[in-house]
Amino acid sequence: MSHTVAQLLCLVGFSALAFGLRRPQHDILRRSLRRPVVLALRAVGACALLAALAVLVDASGWGFGLVKFSGHTTLAAALVYLALIGYGRRSAMRQ
Length: 95
What we know:
mainly alpha; 0% strand
């Protein structure tokens, strides 16, 4: 159960961090978000990643929890990155 929660939190965190950057905003939304929204997205992303770390450390202790966190963040970052690439290619094909 902790793996599912941690993975979802990592996905939410990296998705929020991705939308906190200008290029994904322009690629997906076709505009820039306002500065307070960008800061809120970055804060939500960081908090979600910290919450995932807390879940994993609580379930497995610091030693193994940090190792699990590394794996979850790697997978989540790769999934968000691949989704951004896929969206970019799909929208390029439509034009």
